[in-house]
Design goal:
It is built from no helices and 11 strands. By secondary structure, it is an all-beta fold.
Length: about 120
């Protein structure tokens, strides 16, 4: 089994910054892809950013230039640096990883961390 522990959410004023972390542990060969999603009541889940095992990144247009996804493979941890936060960034943020296991790949999703941006 693989466990994901997310941290770093909280309440911040508009224009502020937060850094989310996603620590991955358990039985796996490696982390293939890490992604951050967010969900707001009444809205569809949004893919915020992804980073592959070769460090290629992609971002939603809504966060480009403000958010940065990164990973530390030595620590099996991923990060989402969020700058210039806006009230519309308020959501529960989920870490989503695709890990290599014996026989293939397996996807895991964290428990979510709440981000609230006040205006």
């Amino acid at each position: 089994q693989v466990q994901l522990v997310e941290s770093g959410g909280g309440l911040v004023q508009s224009g502020g910054s937060l850094r989310l972390s996603c620590a991955v542990s358990g039985s796996m060969i490696s982390i293939r892809t890490m992604a951050w999603y967010r969900r707001t009541p009444g809205k569809e889940r949004e893919l915020v950013a992804t980073i592959t095992d070769d460090m290629s990144t992609n971002y939603a247009d809504t966060v480009k230039g403000r958010f940065t996804i990164s990973r530390d493979n030595a620590k099996n941890t991923g990060y989402l640096q969020m700058n210039s936060l806006k009230p519309e960034d308020t959501a529960v943020y989920y870490c989503d990883v695709l890990v290599g296991i014996i026989g293939g790949n397996q996807r895991y999703v964290g428990q979510g961390t709440q981000v609230i941006v006040s205006s």
